[in-house]
Amino acid sequence: xxxxxxxxxxxxxxxxxxxxxxxxxxxxxxxxxxxxxxxxxxxxxxxxxxxxxxxxxxxxxxxxxxxxxxxxxxxxxxxxxxxxxxxxxxxxxxxxxxxxxxxxxxxxxxxxxxxxxxxxxxxxxxxxxxxxxxxxxxxxxxxxxxxxxxxxxxxxxxxxxxxxxxxxxxxxxxxxxxxxxxxxxxxxxx
Length: 190
Prior knowledge:
Layout: E1 2-8, H1 14-25, E2 33-39, E3 43-45, E4 50-52, E5 55-56, E6 65-68, H2 80-91, E7 95-99, H3 103-108, E8 116-117, H4 124-130, E9 135-136, E10 142-145, E11 148-151, H5 156-169, H6 171-181
Parallel strand pairs: 1-2, 1-6, 2-5, 6-7, 7-11, 8-9
Antiparallel strand pairs: 3-4, 10-11
């Protein structure tokens, strides 16, 4: 079973949090995915609601894939615990990804240094200014840099998750996941 840990930090963007949960969690495969939402605390605040998370950030370290959901205010400091978790997971060989402004967590951890990355177009200039060692491309839906992946904002997270399913299980399974989401498997970005 492929373990997917979705990190929920305070100020999480609800849509970004649910995309990987639904994409990976709804697939019926013999050796599919198990999704865990790992929170910064037992309760995580978003602008619309507060959620309770059964797993802690530390429990994400042993996942096969770690996905950082977007945060509402990327100008705030990234929590040290989140930086430590994504670094440790990457060191253990996990695939690490971000949706939207979750890229700021990967950048703070140094995982995007020397790489091409993307984030929501409204935050792209801030990411590039704060982390000049990253080549920020705001004109794509997602960037696949092997073990580290980033997506632009909102629905581009779905494009990224479908891409990861395709990498893991092939085109037919990814097409099934897209069909479940009532979304195109591939679409142009920019």
